[in-house]
Design goal:
Layout (H helix, E strand, L loop, with lengths): L3 H12 L8 H9 L4 E4 L8 H9 L3 E5 L3 H14 L7 E4 L5 H13 L4 E4 L1 H4 L2 H7 L4 E6 L19 H8 L4 E5 L4 H10 L6 E4 L7 E7 L3 H10 L5 E5 L3 H13 L4 E4 L5 H12 L5 E4 L12 E6 L6 H8 L9 E7 L1 H11 L4 H19 L4 H8 L13 H4 L4 E3 L1 H13 L4 E2 H9 L4 H5 L16 H13 L3 E3 L6 E4 L1 H8 L5 E3 L29 H18 L3 H4 L2 H10 L4 H7 L5 H7 L1 H13 L19 H10 L4 H7 L4 H12 L8 H7 L2 H13 L6 H8 L5 H16 L1
Parallel strand pairs: 1-6, 1-7, 2-4, 2-5, 3-4, 5-6, 8-13, 9-11, 9-12, 10-11, 12-13
Antiparallel strand pairs: 14-18, 15-17, 16-17
Length: 734
Amino acid sequence: MVDDAILHEKLKTFFGYDAFKSDQERIIRHLVDGGNGFVLMPTGGGKSLCYQLPALVMDGTAIVISPLIALMKNQVDAIRGFEAGDDGIAHFLNSSLSRQQIQEVQEDLQRGVTKLLYVAPESLTKEENIALLKTIKISFYAVDEAHCISEWGHDFRPEYRRIRDIVDLIQPAPIIALTATATPKVQSDILKNLRIPDAQVFKSSFNRPNLYYEVRDKVEPEKDIIRFIRQNPGKSGIIYCLSRKKVEEMAQMLSINGIKALPYHAGLDAKTRADNQDMFLTEQIDVIVATIAFGMGIDKPDVRFVIHYDIPKSIEGYYQETGRAGRDGQEGQCITYYSYKDIQKLEKFMQGKPIAEQEIGKQLLQETVAYAESSQCRRKMLLNYFGEDYPQDNCGACDNCLHPKKRYDGREDLALVIELIETLPERFKLEHLAAILSGVTNAMVKSYKHDELPLFGAGKDHDIRFWQAVIHQGLLMHYLEKDIENYGLISATQQGLDFLQHPHEVMLVEDRTFSEGEDDEEPDDDGAAAVHGGGGGDPVLLAMLKDLRKDVARKLHLQPWVVFGDPALEDMTIFYPLSLDELKSKCQGVGDGKAHKFGQPFVDLIARYVEENEIMRPDDFVMKTTVSKDGFPEYIARTTDRRLPLEDIAADRDMDMDELLTRIEAIVSTGFHLNINYYIKEELDPDVVEEIYDWFKTKATSDSLQEAIAALKDEYEELEIRLVRIKFLCEVAN
């Protein structure tokens, strides 16, 4: 027996704490007394101490089954730091060890000095390891990240389902399963699979009051992320992306914008991954951009923000990943970007998987969609998903509570949903019920002949999304419930049936709408910023800048557009650049040459305007991008300096002449300077060059190629027009 005084003494000696948190003491006492346990405790709640401390005070070695090598090393290093002396007190056993290291682990186990042995589930099943563990005394088995057992969990691993069989092969001992995320369905799966129905369940609240939750429309997300990080200088953060490619692109994008960031994904070699992780943990960098391969069990308490560039595949995954923010109880901001196109991509990824797996994946994804699109309190929705009620109407720490949408009395809508459910002889999923009410004749509705129901189309004044929102809110309010064994099937609760008999006011809110989103594309070769919608930000300043442009153009005998195009002037009225460097970095179409050639009177005017009108300049920017991944601008500058024929340059780059000119036009339009006079002298009549050049100088109203071709096509070849336009832009506009 281990008395309470010893537990408190070891808590202070090993871990430096004066008191246990929440249920820790009860869990530890239960395990020390030989009981099986199931621990459901949010990230940052102190799960690991619940098996580390018992292991240190009990006879024998505790076997901790853990899914990630990084997690094992992290925890073993921590335990060895707590206990001065023999490093043999904690070990891990996995594929990363050399033969000599494995021998050292075996010797320490047989000497009886090892109190904690971390093993991957794959390592546990190896015959030599089973034989080794049979020879030592085992105090208990701890199954960490136990949600991996369940197909309904967000990180299912088939090897986890073999754990109980292997335990029976080795020797009996108490089992404690631990996870930060488990719905009632997942909890049931874990207890069944580990065959510990008698396990005492310790369930902590899932509420993380220090975390702020927000879902943003996925419009220019890279630019928004850079702005957010710049507004939070020096703070540690994690950005999650679904693909390795996007992780690499995002890390590079952050770096060239002056943010200390590195990538982390399974495609990197082990040393690079470990080095990047260590640089994040030791604060040599501020941001780690990662796939979900990063973060499980990483003990960095002061992560101040977690950003999901892509919407996660499940609420469990989302909750666990956001839970890595603010583990010290201080500020933690959780920002997620969402678009309909992301959902279509995720659904596409599921194709080709077994039908049962696809069904589970779609249901989990629908829960995520409901969360993202909802106007309800996000905290309330998250806690409800994990079977916990949040009693307050406004948490004060999510976007929906801080900026609530207008509510309406939805008693008729909710009553219609419950009436439909009760008239159907079987139970159906949320999406099917919404389709019936909105009058959508899809394949499933037809197969059940539900398009012949009296209530088919009874709510056709609203679309499917509206009815899905009503059903989700009915679930939150406990008028409806989901069957956890038959995942996703909706039924009415007794409270819902009573409501149908005696309807009363029920305040509902319509869900948010989001943009379709755009497919991920490679950055343009010229790195040009996207064109604004037009109109500028400050109409008074815009009028003044246009007058100045007219004056400058008249003095130089140029068309006004040659000085600065309208998009550049509009950017000036949004960003108020006060120097030539700001003019170049913030305003599209303004390169180094154009800024120095024409820019000074414009920034002088803006500076006076800002001062006289006491304008607060926005903390905004035009995001820097990689100018060209294939080095085209540098290549074309080098080859034209050597006066190579354009046909040879095109052939060298495996292009035709049209493609080459398009690339040249793109970089020249941003202010890049080239000299192709040598080629024009060889190929074009001097009179033709002079006439086209004069048209651009005196008659063109913009730098539009289409306008020039339309005006000149009856007299000149398109190739002639394009070449002279490039010459004119380089010599006059740039």
